[in-house]
Write a structure and sequence with these properties.
single chain, about 425 residues, alpha+beta, BirA Bifunctional Protein, domain 2, eight-stranded mixed sheet, five-stranded mixed β-barrel, 18 strands, nucleotide-binding, ATP-binding, ATP binding, nucleic acid binding
């Protein structure tokens, strides 16, 4: 019976055949242990010399790391294994023998591993991170489909920039200037006026010359927009969504979290509602904590966000930022014109902002004024302004950065491990 490692629980005490690679191996005299992987998971294959043909045992001893094989054996329950099963090997058919595989069980430097990212993905740790990433994506679609959202795909090539052009990759679009999208938000607002509640999931690009562990040049974002939703409605959707995703990972990726050594007790606490702190109070809090470098009107850096997050055991919303440090499209607070109805959601444990969101300006004249104040082209934003001319309504939305969320939930330190092939300031290969 041909099967996969993921499905072996269905075949306890039965003989199966699995197409696999040799992740690692060790032998001690009359027994060989093969660490097998097939993309669905990892399992140990045990080859006992007295129980197999001599040729099979010799193959088990000589087979090299990352060689591909068809392995046949009897599935057994193994209480010592985190996976819970092992394979008593009865036969091995070599498909392709790997020679001098560069990533050995010894320690390797980060740059070496990044140069070999196409192979590093095969490791148990990277496999676990990618499985958690996949579960977050699956749960995202499930959540928004359950909540009545429609998936809409905004363009990647745009003629204007939601937040200015300084951090955009420019390209030529025949005889026009174009940019790689840094956000699908403006287009999602148009979609929300047609479909009510929408979300997108796609790549975004930031030409930001940052080398921190939180930044990528190319990353993926989930961007919902909701007609008739105000600022408070928006925060409820965000906390329910994040809670849903975290609990889905806990339920469906327990083995992967174990592989990564993640403290799941901290994740168990991630359930809505989330705490909130205003920007005003955050500034006071930081000043009291000895951060003399921050004053009202400044944006927060990583140390500031971390200090605030450490006061809570859940993600925390920082709300009502100054108008001057936020994009042009954010709705002013009804009682103050110096702050806007926005919030950043800061993840615990030093992972920083994972969501930025706001209520959007729905008044045509105010939005036109903001566009002019930000020295943006009214012609380029004519279509966006028209959304406020024909049946404008209060509406809100947010964007969640997938890679930062994967890093937080999986507990890995750097976002470069949370995307299959990271694009960094100094890296376009492989």
């Amino acid at each position: 019976m041909k099967t996969t490692i993921k499905e072996v629980s269905k075949f306890v005490d039965k003989e199966v055949t699995i197409g696999a690679w040799i992740a690692n191996k060790r032998s001690s005299g009359k027994i060989a242990f093969l660490q097998l992987r097939d993309g669905t998971g990892f399992i140990q294959g045990v080859v006992v010399k007295a129980e197999v043909d001599e040729a099979v045992f010799q193959t088990a001893k000589s087979i090299t790391q990352e060689s591909s094989i068809f392995v046949t054996g009897v599935v057994r329950v193994d209480e010592r294994s985190p996976f819970g099963y092992e394979l008593g090997v009865t036969g091995i058919e070599v498909i392709h023998e790997s020679v001098n595989y560069p990533i050995t069980p010894k320690e390797h430097g980060t740059e070496f591993l990044m140069d070999h990212r196409h192979l590093w993905l095969r490791s148990k740790r990277q496999h676990a991170v990618m499985k958690i990433r996949n579960e977050i994506i699956r749960a995202t679609y499930e959540f928004f489909n359950k909540e009545g959202f429609t998936k809409v795909d905004p363009p990647i090539l745009t003629g204007s920039a939601p937040e200015g052009t300084s951090e955009l990759f420019a390209t030529k679009y025949f005889d026009e200037d174009a940019y790689l999208s840094q956000s699908g938000q403006l287009y999602m607002e148009a979609a929300a006026m047609a479909l009510g509640k929408v979300f997108s999931f796609g790549p975004t690009f930031r030409a930001e010359k940052s080398k921190t562990r939180r930044h990528l040049i190319e990353f993926w974002m989930i961007e919902p927009e909701m007609a008739f939703y105000d600022f408070e409605d928006n925060l409820v959707v965000q906390e329910n969504y994040v809670s849903y995703v975290v609990q889905s990972v806990l339920e469906n990726c327990s083995l992967e979290l174990t592989v990564l050594g993640r403290d799941t007790e901290k994740l168990q606490q991630i359930k809505a509602p989330f705490p909130r702190i205003s920007y005003d109070d955050a500034i006071k809090f930081l000043n009291e904590k000895g951060f003399d470098d921050i004053k009202w009107g400044d944006d927060f850096g990583a140390p500031h966000e971390t200090a605030i997050a450490e006061s809570f055991d859940k993600p925390v919303f920082i709300t009502h930022y100054p108008t001057g440090i936020k994009p042009f499209y954010m709705q002013p607070a009804p009682d103050r014109d110096d702050v806007v109805l926005c919030a950043d959601l800061i993840a615990p444990e030093g992972y920083g902002e994972i969501i930025g969101g706001s209520q959007r300006i729905h008044d045509h004249e105010l939005l036109k004024q903001r566009i002019e104040e930000h020295d943006l082209s009214p012609e380029a934003y004519q279509w966006y302004l028209q959304l406020r001319e024909f049946g404008s309504v209060p509406h809100s939305g947010f964007g969640l950065g997938l890679e930062r969320t994967v890093a937080w939930i999986s507990g890995v330190e750097h976002v470069r491990e949370t995307i299959p092939f990271p694009r960094l300031l100094n890296r376009l290969y492989p």
